[in-house]
């Protein structure tokens, strides 16, 4: 079956609202179905609720109203153990433990599940190989560049073999060359392993390059204003960045973002 087609959504948000204690309406009636294998970007101006939506999906925050369900799991009759839903989260900052080696940092999620260092070894090395850092297992974070630290953070997210990868502006703090390189590496991994990815970004260019679907959001209150497919084949390599089809999608996404910002300013 082609990715994302003819299957129950992996996660379904129905009219999800989030009102913080100070009265801020971070999300208003957000509905979103994500299917297995999709690479979905949440694109929108600052404050439109992208991170809030991701945190609710991850179970790090709860909705004030509306529902968050996992229809595919329910259909398989196999809810995730301990409500875990096989999710991993990558934040904008690598958030590595400075006193631990690269190996120790990547081992952490398994260690928290009670997996010993010896038992975790193969999985940790496999995750480091995925991000090209297998030779740096004994290095400390201070010895690594910004891009390498982010790779460690990604390896730490991958070591538990998640089905859903949530990424909150993971490359925003990196220089453009490193960002492009990590974009390519992430796409290669996604194509190989078939995860589902929800990727938060401010960048039109990054969202078009990576995703097969872009959900554009507006602020005050945070809401979905456009849901557009990026119907360009993978693998996408550097030539895609200079192709007419890429430019067309960037223009479309840029117009949608512009409209979203106007809608946010008017609100
Ligand atoms: N804990 C909180 N208490 C009160 N308001 C909050 C809290 N967290 C977020 N907000 C507000 O909710 C709105 C949505 O925030 P959120 O961080 O989800 O937006 P975002 O689209 O991810 O923004 P950015 O792109 O700047 O990271 C903003 O107005 C923000 O100030």
UniProtKB/TrEMBL annotation:
The keyword ATP-binding applies. It holds the Pfam family ABC_tran. Transmembrane segments: none annotated. PANTHER family: ALIPHATIC SULFONATES IMPORT ATP-BINDING PROTEIN SSUB 2, TAURINE IMPORT ATP-BINDING PROTEIN-RELATED. GO terms for molecular function: ATP binding; ATP hydrolysis activity. It comes from the Bacteria. InterPro entries: AAA+_ATPase, ABC_transporter-like_ATP-bd, ABC_transporter-like_CS, ABC_transporter_ATP-bind, P-loop_NTPase. Keywords: ATP-binding, Nucleotide-binding, Transport. It comes from Stappia sediminis. Coiled coil: none annotated. Residues 11-244 form the ABC transporter domain. Belongs to the ABC transporter superfamily. This is ATP-binding cassette domain-containing protein.
């Amino acid at each position: 079956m082609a990715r994302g087609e003819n299957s129950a959504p992996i996660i379904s948000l129905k009219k999800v609202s989030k009102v913080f204690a100070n009265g801020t309406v971070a999300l208003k009636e957000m509905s979103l179905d994500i299917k297995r294998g999709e690479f979905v970007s949440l694109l929108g101006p600052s404050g439109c609720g992208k991170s809030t939506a991701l945190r609710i999906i991850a179970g790090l925050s709860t909705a004030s109203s509306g529902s968050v369900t996992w229809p595919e799991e329910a259909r398989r009759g196999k809810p995730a153990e301990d409500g875990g839903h096989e999710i991993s989260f990558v934040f904008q900052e690598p958030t590595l433990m400075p006193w631990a080696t690269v190996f120790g940092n990547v081992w952490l999620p398994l260690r928290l599940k009670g997996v010993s260092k010896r038992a975790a070894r193969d999985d940790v090395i496999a995750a480091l190989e995925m991000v090209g850092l297998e030779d740096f297992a004994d290095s400390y974070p201070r010895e690594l560049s910004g891009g390498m630290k982010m790779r460690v953070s990604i390896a730490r997210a991958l070591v538990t073999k998640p089905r859903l990868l949530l990424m909150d502006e993971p490359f925003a703090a990196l220089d453009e060359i490193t960002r492009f390189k990590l974009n390519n590496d992430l796409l290669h991994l996604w194509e190989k392993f078939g995860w589902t990815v929800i990727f938060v970004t401010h960048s039109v260019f990054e969202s078009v390059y990576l995703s097969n679907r872009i959900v554009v959001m507006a602020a005050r209150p945070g809401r979905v204003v456009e849901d557009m497919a990026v119907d360009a084949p993978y693998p996408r390599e550097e030539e895609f960045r200079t192709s007419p089809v890429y430019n067309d999608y960037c223009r479309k996404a840029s117009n949608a973002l512009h409209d979203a910002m106007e809608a946010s300013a008017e609100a």
